[in-house]
Amino acid sequence: MTRRHSLLSAAAAGGMSILGGRGWAGGDATSAKAAGFWYPEETDPHERTFMQWPVNRRVHSDRAFLTDLQGSIADIANAIAEFEPVVMMAAAEHHPAIRKLVSQNIELWDIPTDDLWCRDSGPSFVIDGKGGLAVTQFNFNGWGDKQIHPNDGKIAARVADRMGLQVFNAGLVGEAGGVETDGHGTLIAHESSFINPNRNRGTRAEIERMLLDTMGADKLIWAPGIIGADITDYHIDALARFVKPGQVLIQIGDEVDPDDPWSVAAAEAYDTLEAATDARGQRLELVELPEPYDIRIDSPDFVSSYVNYYVCNGAVIAAEFGDEEADAEAADILADLYPDREVVMLNIDPVGEVGGGIHCATHEQPKV
Q1: Which domain holds residue 197?
Q2: Is 212 part of any domain?
Q3: Is the per-residue pLDDT at 95 higher than 50?
Q4: Around Cβ 346, how many Cβ atoms within 10 Å?
Q5: Residue 64 phi/psi, 5° resolution?
Q6: What is the pTM of this model?
Q7: CA-wise closest residue to 247 among 212, 287, 215, 191
Q8: Of the four listed, 32, 162, 304, 353, which is most buried by Cβ atoms within 10 Å?
């Protein structure tokens, strides 16, 4: 199974409900923004990285492939652990097997998981600039109840409880992978991942306000995206990322293929961002990453996104796909954009086969 296709309905499999913008029962009714908190940019210093161990056999039924997928998650964790602390979340029964694959300085937390997508179901941290740290809820519902999530739907709250952190909840349903922030008031997102009845019921303006309140931001730049083409309804972090305020990195082909909805949507996002201004009223500088073509995995569901990298303390952890020319060009561009960080390129093909990348598998805790 892959995230490029709709997976088993959680409603049918386990009675998980669509929240529809009304909000999760836990958390503080005051939003992060109202309390003076915001979601910082990923390049700010981290306390640690959180990750999730994939184990649910109803999601990953092929045991051999699941073993490969777990190996890729271990590789990512080990690479990040060379630069900052890493917490791997999994039920305690899985800890002995995990310990055989990850370095000794990776901490294991007894928080049960289903799948690996910590960017979406893991804790989203916000800060207030005065030493305060809290969690802001995205109320993860399995990308619109497309995948079972009995454990993943509880991870953010369980982390907050373990750490003794306040939880803000503006009532939004969605995923942190569906929105990018410059950490200074500006967000970019695809409408398809939020203005979608499988997550939020309400007007565009109402959903936009919830997202701004959740992230503690002032301006949201919407691009259309694609509803239904993959399980995420086209997360923005597979296409475009803030490098810093005013600068966006986007992966896009040389030409638009009118018969390819991904190509058309990427071009629409490019045009939207090129014409937009940020919360400061400044135009955005767009930097292009290449598309890889001569890659190891020949599958229409495979995600070959260089832009789905992760920035940690002192490094950029990114994927390579076997296209030597494109891999090298992507590494050079990342090195130019992040001159004070080491660029580490990894083969994480099993993660690409299930529809994501390194950014999707990680979630940072900012240092306060």
Answers
A1: 10-366
A2: yes
A3: yes
A4: 17
A5: -65, -45
A6: 0.93
A7: 287
A8: 32
Amino acid at 142: G
CATH of the domain at 187: 3.75.10.10
| pLDDT class of 341 with cuts at 50, 70, 90 | very high
- Give the number of domains in the chain: 1
Q: Is residue 126 part of a domain?
A: yes
360, 361, 365, 366: which is the annotated catalytic residue? 360
In a domain, 1, yes or no: no
CB under 8 Å to 43, separation ≥6 — which residues?
Answer: 183, 243, 244, 311, 338
Rg (CA), the chain: 19
Q: 117 lies in a domain?
A: yes
Q: What is the DSSP letter of 111?
A: -
What is the residue whose two structure tokens read 């076997």?
322
* E runs forming strands in 213-358: 219-223, 240-244, 247-251, 285-289, 310-312, 315-319, 342-346
Model confidence band, residue 1 (pLDDT cutoffs 50, 70, 90): very low
Examine the residue annotation and report whether 118 is marked as an active-site residue of this protein: no
Helix (H) or strand (E) holding 46: strand 46-52
